[in-house]
Design brief:
Elements (H helix, E strand, L loop, with lengths): L1 E3 L2 E5 L3 H16 L8 H10 L10 E9 H7 L6 E4 L17 E3 L9 H22 L4 H4 L8 E9 H11 L6 H17 L1 H4 L3
Parallel strand pairs: 1-5
Antiparallel strand pairs: 2-3, 3-6, 4-6
Helix pairs in contact: 1-2
Length: 202
């Protein structure tokens, strides 16, 4: 059994190109002319005016490595595309997985706490039983029935920029699940650095 912290990878990101493409689309509405360095200010004005439909023309793709419980909430966002690691087809007893299960550490319990130790023991038992089921001839899609929400998963997520803004408003809020916030707050912070005109006012 292995435990890791959640993390993310932002894929194929070109902030300048994103803003240029948004500007190009938005200027059709006004039939106005652009200049070499006008994209950032123009897009900022567009967002401040509430004309957010034009930022739907651009998207960001992120690879999230998190627990399956987080992804159950994540995929409720309808205007998005998802490709997720499949427990139906992935056989975690195979060498490419190290013959073990990987779990995401809960962010809300200290490692020395009784609660953490109960969680850890439960995951260890799940791994042991999962591997035994495979040895007994169960297929991965059958053996997965005993896998917990803490199982590590990888999921590619693509959303247009307007939907990312909506997503962050919901999923970084104090009422969001602690493990969702554990990954969404750092992701939003990183996107603020890379594309402040789109994400700074969230």
């Amino acid at each position: 059994m292995k435990t890791i912290k959640p993390y993310f990878v932002i894929e194929d990101f070109d902030g300048a190109k994103i803003l240029k493409n948004i500007e190009k689309a938005a200027r059709v509405c006004y039939k106005s002319e652009s200049s070499e360095n006008s994209a950032e200010n123009f897009v900022k004005k567009i967002i401040n005016s509430g004309h957010e439909s034009v930022i739907e023309h651009e998207k960001i793709t992120v690879l999230l490595i998190c627990d399956r419980g987080v992804t159950h909430e994540l995929v409720r966002h309808r205007i998005a595309s998802y490709s997720q690691e499949s427990t139906r087809y992935c056989n975690y007893s195979h060498d490419k997985f190290g013959g073990e299960l990987t779990f995401i550490e809960p962010s809300f319990w200290e490692k020395e706490s009784v609660s953490y130790k109960i969680w850890q023991k439960s995951c260890e038992q799940s791994e042991e039983n999962y591997l035994k089921l495979l040895e007994e001839g169960a297929t991965p899609q059958e053996a997965r029935a005993i896998l917990p929400n803490s199982l590590k998963t990888e999921i590619y997520v693509t959303m247009n920029l307007r939907e990312w803004r909506h997503f962050f408003k919901l999923r970084t809020a104090p009422a969001a699940h602690p493990q969702m916030r554990e990954i969404t707050i750092p992701l939003l912070d990183e996107l603020r650095k890379r594309l402040p005109v789109i994400f700074d006012n969230l």
